[in-house]
Write a structure and sequence with these properties.
By secondary structure, the protein is of the alpha+beta class. The protein has helices at residues 3-11, 17-24, 51-75, 85-97, 105-141, and strands at residues 26-35, 38-47. The protein is built from five helices and two strands, in the order H-H-E-E-H-H-H. Helix 1 crosses helix 2 and helix 3 packs antiparallel against helix 5 (105-141). The protein is elongated.
């Protein structure tokens, strides 16, 4: 089911109970994908039951990216392995590639961390919304 379909089904007042319930147990997460040098907006749906595990995986991935970012700082001051011109150029090139300049390592890693954080926040919000809606429905049934 496409994200737009799930959202439309969950919001529709004329959708039968079981179909509406199935759509309501899906969360839509907005993201971006890189394609041919450009960035496009995309989205996907996640079963509400899967969100806690997905959040943990995203947090693990974000932590790995943070470690990569720390390593990139060390690359900025890499010592050439030798005194020859090639070693000097290699160290200089690696140092430049590890900066925060557009297209460089640190900038790309920071962008990845930001995107993961955005998705974690969206998933946590979807889970909170689902739980509060579920609790409100349970309270009305009592």
């Amino acid at each position: 089911m496409q994200p737009e379909q799930a959202a439309a089904l969950a919001a529709s007042p004329i959708v039968p109970g079981p179909v509406k319930a199935a759509a309501a147990t899906m969360a839509v997460v907005n993201t971006y994908i890189n394609t041919a040098g450009g960035v496009q907006k995309a989205s996907f749906t996640v079963d509400i039951e899967q969100i806690p595990g997905l959040i943990e995986k995203y947090k693990d991935a974000r932590e790995k990216l943070r470690k990569i970012l720390q390593k990139s700082y060390r690359l900025r001051s890499i010592t050439p392995p030798g005194e020859d011109e090639i070693s000097q150029q290699m160290a200089n090139s690696l140092s430049k590639m590890a900066t925060d300049e557009p297209g460089c390592l640190a900038e790309a890693v920071r962008d990845g961390i930001k995107r993961l954080t955005d998705q974690i926040n969206q998933l946590e919000a979807a889970l909170r919304d689902y739980r509060s809606t579920d609790e409100a429905a349970t309270a009305r049934q009592i």
